[in-house]
Amino acid sequence: MNPFENAQVQLKKAADLMKLDKNIYEILKQPQRILEVNIPVKMDDGTIKVFKGFRSQHNNSRGPTKGGIRFHPDVSKEEVMALSMWMTWKCAAVNIPYGGGKGGVIVNSHELSEKELEKLSRNYIEAIKPIIGPSKDIPAPDVYTNPKIMAWMMDEFSRLEGFHNPAVITGKPIEVGGSQGRGFSTAQGGVYTLNEAMKKLGIEKKDTTVAIQGYGNAGYFAAKILYEQGYKIVAVSDSKGGIYSEMGLDPEKVFSHKKKTGSVKNFQDTKNITNEDILELKTAVLVPAALENQITKENASKIQAKIILELANGPTTPEADEMLFKDKVLVIPDILANAGGVVVSYFEWVQNLMNYYWTEEEVLGKLKKIMADSFNQIYKIQQKYKIDMRTATYISAVSRVASAMKHRGHT
Ligand code: GLU
Which of the residues 218, 228, 235, 294 could staple to 311 if both were Cys, CB 3.0 to 4.6 A apart? Predict the structure, then answer.
């Protein structure tokens, strides 16, 4: 289950259906550029440790490449390549003027001190500096990276350039050029698409049951926003395991418990469950918000949800996709469902470039329009061709990329 192979299978499926020009397909099936770096960091005990990192730029026909940086022990070159390709489709699917990129460092950041984490963040930026910049490639947060890390990275890039350069990276704290709404925009964008899907299926929000796998930035904010809108969050999990309550959970209380104990597990009046169990619960909505390859041919037939909102990147394998489609599960695919993050990153970059900042209301108004319009446009493609939502999203995204390539004379 190599995520890059999965990404290639998804592209091939859409390319065949839409009869994509062979030359364009040849170019799009791999990234344009992958940089591999070895990053030395002087640890607190005085020894040097060398961390391996990557930055992959999949395609820049529609604009500078864009995408997060992941700090995780399971990062690999193939994973970063897949994630960069998904970013190309994501940006095209919601029609923002970027290509796709992604970075990653193989590290268990929880084992680093604050000082070591800062050094790693700064040294990684120094290492990939030749290929990034506000009109080249713009990083952002991803799994286990956050606004604090983005601030260090922006500072390092600016220091090396010799001038303040906030547009090099997004997802920064508000005080150093971040955008209102960016912190919860991935989840918020997903909820906008989910609400559109609910209307299509004629399901009321009130007391609609939801299970969420992952309680990081995407999972936690999804729980919070959905709860505030009247959905009933019955199960959540993190890397250590999950909890279930038929009565429903209060996401804020679960969050404080996780902060105190390090996990959502063992929360009062709930039953502990595993990360596998959470996918198979009888809920109306399932939100994978953790890592790749969670819904596979092994468990897809056991999924009971009517709607899957993919806030994680790559949670469903191509075989599982076929099975879910047969079972009439509506999958709102990652490259649409979690695009809210990069959409508000785009707004942040625009605000940095013009040095003029919007209110949260303005940001969310623009985000809602983009997410709802994109969902509805893709839903129409899906209805017309009787295909799954992922393939419909690919068709929309890949045709935008292909026409940019044609205009630029790349074929
Ligand atoms: N890492 C996020 C993603 O996978 C956000 C990327 C960005 O804001 O550039 O979409």
Answer: 218
